[in-house]
Amino acid sequence: MARIVEINPINPQPRLIAQAVDILQHGGVICYPTDTMYGVGCDIFNQKAVKRVYQIKRRPKDKPFSFMCASLTNISQYGHVGNTAYRLMRKNLPGPYTFVLSGTKMVPKIMLTKQKTVGIRVPNHPVCLAMLELLGNPVLNTSAMIEDDDQPVRTAMDVERLFGKQVDLIIDSGEIVPAPSSVISLLSEQPEVLREGRGDISAFL
């Protein structure tokens, strides 16, 4: 069974963040809180761990996952960011948005779509940001939900019910009312809203 660790959602304890990061560095898969819902993820540079997440989520290999970065500076290493995209992201990040960009050579092939695009987030959640900062690499981001399971996933206990036997660590940061991120394509100068979720989309219309 996965170990469950309680981490303060407002002031994450550095010692506990370091424990989570140690698991990621050693190829582990963890469940963690974000500003939209609980997520499942791993270091995107550990291919074995990424494949594990595909199995856990029962996801076809031709549907790459999005990933989270620590900051906007970080994003430009992994996605091609034009002037308009930079301006929009600077105003709205961190926040509940997934931005679709053309991927750079830094992105592992397993994380790229056939069109060589990526979905990147900078979540507005202290636990996530502390973890990403310490790890220094992006973390794969997918919801801690299973498609054919219609029970709500709001707490670490809900996450444990679904993934407790398949992941190495579950971070408990209290209840999160789940809502997907808004997905915005910044592949051209004119932004395109691909999915409206949590987060004001008026700036992208």
TrEMBL record:
<dbReference type="GO" id="GO:0003725">
    <property type="term" value="F:double-stranded RNA binding"/>
</dbReference>
<protein>
    <submittedName>
        <fullName>Translation factor SUA5</fullName>
    </submittedName>
</protein>
<dbReference type="InterPro" id="IPR052532">
    <property type="entry name" value="SUA5_domain"/>
</dbReference>
<feature type="domain" description="YrdC-like">
    <location>
        <begin position="14"/>
        <end position="199"/>
    </location>
</feature>
<dbReference type="InterPro" id="IPR017945">
    <property type="entry name" value="DHBP_synth_RibB-like_a/b_dom"/>
</dbReference>
<dbReference type="InterPro" id="IPR006070">
    <property type="entry name" value="Sua5-like_dom"/>
</dbReference>
<dbReference type="Pfam" id="PF01300">
    <property type="entry name" value="Sua5_yciO_yrdC"/>
</dbReference>
